[in-house]
Amino acid sequence: METTSARPVVVGPGGTGVAAHVGLHALCAFADRLGLGDELSSAIPRPRERAPLHDRGKVLVHAMAMLAGGGEACSDIEFLRSEQSLFGFVPSDSTLWRTFHEITPATRDEVKRAIANVRAEVWRRSSATTGSEPVVLDVDASFVEIHTEHKAGTGPNKDGYGFHPLLCFADATVELLSAMLRPGNAGANDVADHIVVLDEALAQLPGEIAHGHGVGDEASLVRRDVVIRADSAGCTAGFLAGLRARNVGFAVVARSTRQITEAIFSTLGHEELSVPAVRQDGELREGAAVMELTELVDLASFPEGTRLIVRREPLHPGAQQSLFPSLDYRYWGRYTDQDGDPVALDAFIRAHAHVEEHISRLKDSGLCRFPISNLEANRNWLMVLAAAADLVRWFQLLCLDGALSRARPKQLRWSVFHAPGRLVRSARREFVRILDGWPSAEALLTAYRRIALIT
After folding, report:
1. E strands within 328-369?
2. What is the C-alpha to C-alpha distance for residues 122 and 81, in angstroms, rounded to an integer?
3. Residue-range definition of the domain harbouring residue 43
4. Does one domain contain both 183 and 287?
5. Measured between alpha carbons, how far is 112 from 106 in angstroms, rounded to an integer?
6. Which of 405, 389, 385 is nearest to 397 (CA)?
7. Are 135 and 227 in contact (CB under 8 A)?
């Protein structure tokens, strides 16, 4: 019986014929097939008259691969530079750092438009985006602590000091459609910020979906409904008016008010007004109930057609009371302009909790680190980080199956992105043989076959 965890071998420099990060090569090959590098190259002007040594579109794709592999700083690009046989001529960390500083706000807008063009192609190919159901967008903010006060654009927060980015995700695909880098003390319910993030998210949707969702568009122009879900930060008159002006539906968490408290109080003892609530899987939620209180509150300040849905659950020890002071139940309220059964709407609105997992994915993929002091460069870092997260999701949607198509970043890195292989040269061609016994070798080979079919 062996009692040691490592075999005695002699380790030294000079290894050849070995390929690391084979899965990241697949990710870059996938990006090339989608034309992502070409789109980015056309969006970024040359920083000087003579063409740079590294095409800036290629630099950003390599940066996305680095972030997908777990990189958190420009210097992490060096781990791809050592794999020239797989990734070609990879930029240095100084070139990557310089690229983040070269991109201006105007160029950033062009880059986002380029990413939207590629996204439209992915949505055309993915079954997750087909059908006629509303496209659901989730808006939320998350604090990112920065352990220095010397980075521009940071600020204090009750949780520390850093940034407080506002994010908007597509629920069906877990893509980060838009992100705004804000100081830590940015207001949670800032209407202007929410509108900017909304407009950028709508601009990322394919044209046939975004059609009719411009400011002032006639409702008859809408080809596919879009619905925004948000917590109480999105429950402002200005934001809801902005949504209605863009023909976008809403489902937002209600803040505690006197009239909501009075409405709930008036329902006490009238159990016939409540209906058993359900979980996300459609099964009954024991002890929970849903009530519609639209007729019991004044909604004149809300967009026409707004409804108030209230859910109650048994108050477990330690839980905080919310809308109504009760010793037996905890209450949540949501405003929505969507049609349908209150129970189904309650389950739909509660699914906004998915956004916490989406943000957790980002924090596993570089969101916790803004490695540059310059604010504009960090905004560019956030843009590329978002594009990297989306590239990974596209790869999962189109190239992977089963658990890997839903895997979190850590599992993808262990099983796919950092898969090792052996370089073999034969008949003037280079082959990569994935390590025998690698658990996800077949999934990676299947991904390569699917990449080859993309035209």
Report:
1. 329-336
2. 29
3. 18-106+371-453
4. no
5. 10
6. 405
7. yes
| CATH code of the domain in which 182 resides | 3.30.420
In this structure, the answer to whether residues 306 and 344 fall within a common structural domain is: yes
Which tokens belong to 414? Answer: 């262990």
Across the strands, what pairs with 309? 292, 334
Do 328 and 226 reside in the same domain of the chain? no
Q: Per the domain annotation, does 365 fall within a domain?
A: no
Give the C-alpha separation, 334 to 276, whole Å. Answer: 17
pLDDT band at 8, cuts 50/70/90?
confident
Domain count, the chain: 3
Question: The sheet that has 421-426: what strands, in order across it?
Answer: 18-19, 421-426, 429-434
Which tokens in the block code for residue 32?
A: 């090339």
- Tell which of 219, 246, 273 closes a domain: 246
Mean of the per-residue pLDDT values of the chain? 90
> Rounded to 5 degrees, what are φ and ψ at 111?
-65, -40
Q: Tell me the two tokens of residue 30.
A: 């996938």
Query: Does 187 share its domain with 214?
Result: yes
pLDDT digits (tens, 9 = 90+) for 409-436: 999 999 999 999 888 888 888 888 988 8
Same domain assignment for residues 177 and 277: no
Together in a domain, 342 and 274: yes
**Residue 18: φ, ψ to 5°:** -115, 140
Over residues 59-113, the pLDDT tens digits come to 999 999 999 999 999 999 999 988 888 898 999 999 999 999 999 999 999 999 9
Does 13 map to a domain? no
Helix (H) or strand (E) holding 195: helix 191-204
In this prediction, residues 357-368 reach a mean pLDDT of 92
* CA 165/CA 425 separation, integer angstroms: 47
- pTM for this prediction: 0.92
